[in-house]
Design brief:
Elements (H helix, E strand, L loop, with lengths): L6 H22 L2 H12 L3 H14 L4 H11 L1 H19 L5 H11 L5 H12 L2 H12 L5 H14 L16 H20 L13 H5 L5 H32 L3 H17 L1 H11 L1 H19 L4 E4 L2 H5 L6 E4 L3 H29 L4 H30 L4 H28 L12
Length: 438
């Protein structure tokens, strides 16, 4: 259901909601960078580091369905402004935490920021007509670039103010300055949403009983879309917080350089989302997802290969003679190039998945989009600890990408199976035909 208001009102909603989402996403994933100095200060293990990033992702996931429903029922402006304003409280508390249990609790609470995605999806879907929803949702989704904000400004802000702080500790120093600054920005953004966005939101869920709003969730198609979103969004969230550590541990790079290289993954995974929305409008989401999964699988397959030496002439080596060896090793440049390709696929794929939703469920974008976002983001919660446990069990850091490769290929196979079933039902007379007649 698109609003009948003019383009200026729609544009204002789109721009302000995208700006708010960018900030909320930066807050949600700030531990990807802050976790490095926190780990050094508190002596955290890899598993503790993984859980610190994961609990924020968890709380930014589990409420997405509810926030999507609330945005449909009460309006995106009201729900969005309240959510942004309340998130400022745990963001400030993060800057005051002094132990791992305190940080874990604060990280969980500040993770509420991730739920703004469902609000913005339902809000913008209600304002834009069907033929423009793919592009509009792509523009809003480009707020994912907020994950790179902390990557860029975090290392600089950490060194800007001494660890002891300024003004007797009222201005925290070191890594604590970042969440304190975010808390102030969140309050300003909440005021801007409330004062500048149109007061009368379209509310497609108003007056409808909850059972009616939840009825589409019984369809298998919704859960399939959710799996796709785990691949293009959940894995994106997980890599956004995991890559700085990967660069530091595997390649021995300083945090500032690791954060910059991680941003080269985040930028295409975020900024290509409007292009993905436009392509989904023009070509269809299904065709686009074929290309996305295929490209990602190829890049992830190479990233999953561990550094190794393969003896091509083992007999000569056993006899003491010269042997031919095949060496495989991805240096930082090749690794970053492949991760960039994965980011491109994720950026386009995120928009394609959300193009499906208003096409199949035009009156239930809040509920369906909320569930898809919830399950996709839960992938971002489970993956970092899974990366840590897999690395600890095998000693091979590339298992991170092996996990993502299997997930991508599995989703690709399900998509292909569904398409083949549709074609078989539509053209049963071609079931046993393999080529054109002469």
């Amino acid at each position: 259901m698109a609003s009948s208001a003019g383009d200026p009102a729609r544009t204002r909603v789109l721009l302000l909601s995208t700006a708010a989402f960018t900030l909320m996403f930066a807050v949600w994933l700030m531990f990807g960078v802050l976790g490095i100095p926190i780990r050094a200060e508190l002596g955290l293990t890899d598993v503790q580091f993984g859980w610190l990033t994961a609990v924020a992702i968890l709380n930014g996931s589990v409420w997405r369905l509810l926030f999507g429903l609330w945005a449909d029922r009460y309006g995106g402006r009201r729900v969005g402004a309240v959510l942004v304003g309340l998130t400022a409280i745990p963001a400030l508390l993060v800057s005051r935490a002094s132990s791992f249990p305190e940080l874990l609790a604060c990280a969980f609470l500040v993770g509420m920021a991730g739920n703004f995605f469902s609000v913005g999806i339902a809000w913008n879907s209600a304002w834009f007509p069907r033929q423009r929803q793919g592009f509009a949702l792509g523009v809003f989704g480009a707020g994912n670039v907020g994950a790179s904000v902390t990557k860029f400004i975090g290392p600089w802000l950490i060194t800007l103010v001494p660890a002891a702080g300024l003004m007797g500790g009222w201005v925290p120093g070191g890594w604590r300055l970042v969440p304190a600054l975010y808390a102030a920005l969140l309050l300003l953004t909440a005021v801007a949403l409330w004062r500048l966005c149109p007061a009368m939101d379209p509310r497609p869920g108003a007056g409808r009983p909850l059972v009616d709003l939840l009825r589409p969730l019984r369809k298998v198609r919704v859960w399939r879309f959710s799996l796709y979103y785990v691949v293009v969004f959940g894995a994106y969230v997980a890599l956004s917080v995991w890559l700085p550590k990967y660069y530091v541990d595997v390649y021995g790079l300083p945090l500032s350089q690791a954060a910059l290289l991680t941003a080269l993954f985040i930028f295409p995974a975020s900024l290509l989302r409007p292009l993905g929305g436009w392509l989904a409008d023009a070509l269809g989401a299904r065709r686009l997802m074929y290309w996305v999964f295929g490209t990602m699988a190829a890049a992830l397959g190479l990233l999953a290969l561990p550094s190794s030496h393969l003896a091509l002439d083992a007999a000569a080596d056993a006899a003491g003679g010269p042997s031919r060896m095949l060496h495989f090793h991805l240096g930082p440049a090749a690794f970053t190039a492949l991760v960039f390709v994965v980011g491109c696929g994720m950026g386009i794929g995120k928009a394609a998945v959300y193009k499906y939703i208003p096409e199949y469920f035009p009156a239930d974008v809040g509920a369906v989009g909320g569930l898809v976002g919830l399950l996709g983001a839960l992938g971002g919660f489970f993956l970092p600890p899974l990366f840590a446990y897999a690395h600890r069990a095998t000693g091979v850091p590339q298992t991170t990408f092996g996990i993502l490769f299997l997930l991508t290929v599995g989703s690709w196979a399900w998509l292909h199976w569904v398409v083949q079933r549709l074609l078989a039902q539509a053209t049963p007379h071609l079931e046993h035909r393999f080529e054109q007649s002469a």
